Amino acid sequence: MKSLEELAKIKASRREALKIREGIPSATEKAHVMMCGGAGCISSNCKDVVEAMQASLAKNGIADQVQVILTGCMGPCDMGPVAIVYPDATFYRRLKPKDADAIVEEHIMKGNLVPRLLYRAPGAKEPTPKVTDMDLFAKQKKIVLRNNFYIDPTNIEDYIANDGYVALGKALTAMTPAEVVEEVKKAGIRGRGGAGFSTGMKWSFCAASKGTPKYVVCNGDEGDPGAFMDRSVLEGDPHSIIEGMAICGRAIGAEQGYVYVRAEYPLAIDRLSYAIDKAREYGLLGKNIFDTGFNFEIEIRIGAGAFVCGEETALLTSIEGKRGEPKPRPPFPANEGVWAKPTVLNNVETWANIAEIILKGADWYSSIGTAGSKGTKVFALAGRINNTGIVEVPMGTTLREIVYEIGGGIPRKKAFKAVQTGGPSGGCIPAEQLDTPIDFESLTALGAMMGSGGMIVMDEDTCMVDIAKFFMDFIVDESCGKCSPCRIGTKRMLEILERITTGKGKEGDIELLLELGNTIKSTALCGLGQTAPNPILSTIKYFRDEYESHIKENKCAAKVCEFVE
Amino acid sequence: MINLTIDNRKVAVEEGSTILEAAKSVGINIPTLCYLKDINVIGACRICLVDVKGARTFIPSCVAPVSEGMVVNTHTPNLIKARKLVLELILSDHPMECLTCKRNGNCELQKLAEEFGLSEIRFEGAKTEYPIDDSSPALIRDPRKCILCRRCISVCTNIQSVQALTVENRGFNSLVAPAFNEKLANMECVQCGQCSLVCPTGAIVEQDDTDKVWAALADPKKHVVVQTAPATRVQIGETIGAEPGTIATGQMVAGLRSLGFDKVFDTDFSADLTILEEGNELLQRVTTGGVLPMITSCSPGWIKFIEHFYPDLLPHLSTCKSPQQMFGALAKTYYAQKEGIDPKDIYSVSIMPCTAKKYECQRPEMFSSGYQDVDVVLTTRELGRMFKQSGMSMTNLPEEEYDAPLGISTGAGELFGASGGVMEAALRTVYEVVTGKELEDINFTACRGITGVKEATVNVGDLPVSVAITNGLGNARKVLDKIRAGEAGYHFIEVMCCPGGCIGGGGSPIPTNLDVRLKRIDAVYTEDERMVLRKSHQNPAVQDLYAEFLEKPLGHKSHELLHTHYTERDHYPKEEC
Ligand SMILES: Cc1cc2nc3c(=O)[nH]c(=O)nc-3n(C[C@H](O)[C@H](O)[C@H](O)COP(=O)(O)O)c2cc1C
Ligand code: SF4
Ligand code: SF4
Ligand code: SF4
Ligand code: FES
Known about the structure:
The complex is a heterodimer of chains A (565) and B (577). Chain A has a five-stranded mixed β-sheet, sandwiched between helices. In chain A, strands 11-10-14-12-13 form a five-stranded mixed β-sheet. Chain A has a four-stranded mixed β-sheet with strand order 2-1-3-4, covered by helices on one side. In chain A, a hairpin with a 5-residue loop joins strand 12 and strand 13 (427-430). Chain A has helices at residues 4-17, 39-43, 46-59, 100-110, 135-138, 156-161, 166-173, 177-187, 199-208, 229-236, 238-252, 266-281, 312-319, 348-360, 362-366, 399-406, 440-445, 464-478, 484-500, 509-523, 527-531, 534-553; strands spanning 31-36, 66-71, 83-86, 90-92, 214-220, 254-262, 286-289, 294-303, 343-347, 376-383, 389-394, 416-421, 427-430, 454-459. Helix content of chain A is 41%, strand content 15%. Chain A folds into four domains: 4-138, Glutaredoxin (3-Layer(aba) Sandwich); 156-366, NADH-ubiquinone oxidoreductase 51kDa subunit (Rossmann fold); 376-459, Ubiquitin-like (UB roll) (Roll), CATH 3.10.20.600; 464-553, NADH-ubiquinone oxidoreductase 51kDa subunit, iron-sulphur binding domain (de novo design (two linked rop proteins)), CATH 1.20.1440.230. With 565 residues, chain A is of the alpha/beta class. The radius of gyration of chain B is 25 Å and the shape is globular. Chain B has three domains: 2-75, Ubiquitin-like (UB roll); 98-206, Alpha-Beta Plaits, CATH 3.30.70; 210-561, Rossmann fold. Helices cover 34% and strands 13% of the residues of chain B. Chain B has 577 residues and is an alpha/beta fold. In chain B, helix 8 packs across helix 10. At the A-B interface, helix 18, helix 19 and helix 20 of A face helix 2 of B. The structure holds flavin mononucleotide (FMN), iron/sulfur cluster (3 copies) and FE2/S2 (inorganic) cluster. The site of FE2/S2 (inorganic) cluster has 12 residues of chain B, from loops.
């Protein structure tokens, strides 16, 4: 890629070819069927539906007039497999291979909707055919997942058609590295990997750091149980990561990037490495990008599979081929990261925001969100809720909006009890706090965490002690064992919970849990241990009575725990 | 300089100092456990935490650098509570076998528990259960007592460059062990025991062979002889609480005699003998175009190291046995004949600052007398234990002399205890043998000190002899790599396995740290100066030995008894995870 003009040409011609996805009927093509290829839909066999669809198209002789494209995750996973049929942007759900004929022969060939496959809002009589009209998406704002309805993740020109790589071109040709850093700083974006550190600040520290060479790293380890936000981006829009990292390379003076992806994400690895090859082919990676003398390369490193490898110092050590284990900071990666060289490490979702910030400007970005937390956040909604899946909402959206408006409320008329955010580092938030606008500060104040964006909804049938035990069990398995408070302390907390949930709890156990929890938080070496007690501490804070009834009365109100005599 | 406040005191320290060092500079001692200066700085145990104003969590003072204006508190009530709980957790996963532990009374964990005033362990639950590994003749690993501080890994990896130990498994199941929990004896572990020196608890200790010695002493049919390594006399005092650097030669001899040894001999004697054999071997190699540089072979950990890691360089090793093994071979031949004792009745004990010697004496090459030349090796620590068990107060004993003939030695032999000592002793002899002139100054100070790699050139007549001296196997590696690369123009290299030489050996009293090592080294040179004879070739007992038995250095008998050969060994492919 030699110039922005060249890029603009590709964009214009591809956009013309993709008009149909903007709702403009085409003379040569009847439809584009965007079939969701996210984790949820894959597991509900969307690929069989794609095959059936192609067979049906062939049978009807219109295979050359209809494209069937597997996209990244569209979000509403529990309805999967889902698809959007353009140009009319009709949303179909719970597709089976046998539905292919109906969509092809009725919808595509005759222009009739297939009502039984349409979405109906909870309680509504009439279906909502158009994806843009769905209540589910009304409160969402897609920045990170901007392309997931629209592009073929294996087609770089699809990405370019939707303004892809313009931001990189702008950063290289129209901005100084310092201006890029400044723009990101001004945008107010904070890291989406959990801790919420200012991304612009991080870049500026690294830019100022003396060592060379410098590195740019993407954290795609995503080890929280049930989380798949980053996976959705890696699979659905890999070029957004590449572009974000290249922009950072320019800003801090790095020529090498690494993407660390967990081994459990083979499709993400495939898509990303294909995208890297394509970007190189188009001259968007490699030497002298946009004829500016800027060189940038990206390599994929496959994760060792441990949750703690997502912790930054452990991840960087793992990239070097050593046992992935946290190290004390300082030194911070911005000064001594991979190979002890200055390194910027950001989360997948953070990277996916960068191009949009550069393209549309810090002012636009910072107009979204709350005072302290800008932009949007992607959450993985799970648990006792009608619409599970991936959602992206502006910071400041309330939990109630997410649970009831986007998530469609609690199934089977059960009562909402709590929502757990932040995975094993997070905490449980009770019904009283449902109107809290979500941002980094408010969640921390509630004893929970933004974390990477896991959100598990619980109803009245959930035992909070059991939930705490579930997370502690995970932590005990995942503690690396380097520091004593986490290695032994979390094990002891789990043992106490096991006691309580089997009717062997003792007077004083709650106090011991509190003492352990507070001490581990302030003494553990890395974020894993420092946040590990949160699930316990928050459930004690809001549901202490449940602990007490387990201990004193051998009673589990939710009838989850079985007490052995 | 960085200015900060610690416990309301203004402190100024150099940039890059840790909070721990800054506190120490004003006399504030923060408790530590995993930390070991210059060796293990990983911030793992969380005992050394301090309160830094503005920080979200407590900060590990052993790793955290100071910064300008920092405000540190080292003993707020919350901090004391947190540290105590961390220690309580560590102890909740400990077998609590203090009363029967080798480190009872000399355990850092015990000491912390006492200092923190811990009164109760409130946690009952799982404890680490891994089997004891006693496969090695030198060391026993008991993972149940391991607090996972990783000092042993650091010393083995960074100082010794052996990498015999790693962390296996994760979380509560973490285990410090050879890779794949292989047995120590099957690894490249060189048995140096440096890990046992740094271990804060009883998780790695020497194999205790005192029972064998007690049994031999009690056996009327056995003629029990003992040899004491050069370093032991400057170490043994520490086992009964004397200051490091205390010389207790005469008391040790008296103590050994009253334990019941029939003869108290000295490895310094065979050290002198080594100089004659090795010095002549060097001259022979130089004059006949043999393999150079020649490297010393007294240190069994070092021998095992080169056998595993640099088998291609084995021809550089002197074929001389170590002084311990020369002694062993002579005790059951020359001495037995001279005294008319059946060698099968001789029980040969040696007292060594070294765990690897326990391994060495069992090597198949070390049966030259027709019997196992040295029957059992005790470390300095074990001898201290025997003295304690016997109820004897060594300090109150009148000094006594070693027995003749194998107890007669020179200051040169004593030098073997410190890094550079073999080289200095060799130079004293080689110079005079080659030039026929007396040395004006017998102190080769360039050989002395604890620097990892020392180099010197000494004119021996017309020949400028170029030498190198290393201590600690990581440093040996540097010189070996130079040899491999063809860049080592030395004639003679002294390699000692352990940092500082034998006075820092893996069988030394604990603690053995830099300070203690330096003091012991000083004591070695003091002991040398106190000797009347200070050159090995002047040793009258060695002269007699040649006259009566060996005939001449490198002669037929010498080859049979005093020289050996080496074995190429495997090197486990190291897998990175
Ligand atoms: C135990 C643990 C696991 C983590 N796992 C992840 C992860 O899977 N992905 C991620 O991006 N960040 C993870 N983090 C956070 C990273 O350490 C780091 O803060 C983050 O990647 C920085 O990127 P950001 O500033 O863009 O958030 C984890 C942290 C801890 C303590
Ligand atoms: S807090 Fe846990 S995961 Fe982190 S270093 Fe300590 S033991 Fe390892
Ligand atoms: S004895 Fe020496 S080589 Fe063996 S494990 Fe210990 S330090 Fe390593
Ligand atoms: S064996 Fe000793 S030195 Fe090694 S980790 Fe365990 S306690 Fe520490
Ligand atoms: S002594 Fe500092 S963390 Fe162990």
